[in-house]
Amino acid sequence: MKKNAVFHDLAGKSVFVTGGGAGIGAALTEGFLAQGAKVAFVQRSDASDFVARMADTYGAAPLFLLCDITDIEALQACLSQAAEAHGDIAVLVNNAANDTRHTLADTTVEDWDRGMAVNLRPHFFTAQAAADGMRRLGGGSIINFSSISYMMGNSGYPGYMASKAGITGLTRALARELGPDNIRVNALMPGWVLTERQMELWATPEDLQAHLGRQCLKSHLEPEDIVDATLFLASESSKMMTGQAMVVDGGVVVTG
Question: What gap in Å lies between CA 240 and CA 246, rounded to an integer?
Answer without folding.
Answer: 14
